[in-house]
Amino acid sequence: MLGKSRNRYPGIEILKTEKQVDRRIKEMAGEVIEIYRGRKPFFLTLLHGGEPFAAKLMSSIARQDPSFNPNQSTIIISRYGPGRTPGELTIVAPITERVRRDMQGREVILLDDLIDGGETAREARRHALENGAGSVGMITLVTKEHSPTADIPLVMTGFPNMPNGWLLGSGMNGPNEAHRWDGYIALDLSSPPSTSGSD
Predict the structure, then answer these.
(1) Cis peptide before 179 (omega within 30 of 0)
(2) Mind listing the pLDDT tens digit for each residue in 144-172?
(3) Where do the domains of the chain lie, and which CATH numbers do they carry?
(4) What is the pLDDT of residues 84-110, one digit of tens each?
(5) Is the pTM higher than 0.90?
(6) CA distance 191 to 8
(7) Residue 163: which residues within 8 A CB-CB, separation 6 or more?
(8) 135-144 and 154-162 as β-strands: parallel, antiparallel, unpaired?
(9) Nearest residue to 57 via CA among 41, 72, 47
């Protein structure tokens, strides 16, 4: 039975163990292969939150189908200021000229850990389209009970309708940056239910 974590971080509730997360990402990799085989999409990971998820997803794709050869790059869009206060969206690391040439007219799939308010996803979509994407969809590890569609087709999500509180692990960070690299998904019990999630 899952409950309060007994790991090095007190005050959190494990919602999905690392084993459960890894199993679901492996399933998602198989689904990606089936959906996109022969379509040559371009995967664009939103850093830093999407990095742990995208790394596991791409590794699993490569193991399951070495011939799939996904094209993948990254951008950084910052939303959070000091602490957990949402701030103004800033494109910290935009699409580079080389990536812009590679993705011209192609189906771009955003990879991220979480859709929360949707602003970051909308900004990423706008930036991709301005740089020549033919279309933009999204694959995310987590959506919350209140997650909006963010005006982007959601191709798949690993764990839909998770609690609306502050989530940790699998890309979602907390007071300690190490939370981002923990393989589980957990709820920070110190934050109120209405608190937004990670970036």
Answers:
(1) no
(2) 987 666 578 899 999 999 998 889 999 99
(3) 19-162 (3.40.50.2020)
(4) 555 677 787 878 888 889 999 999 999
(5) no
(6) 18
(7) 15, 144, 145, 187, 193
(8) parallel
(9) 72
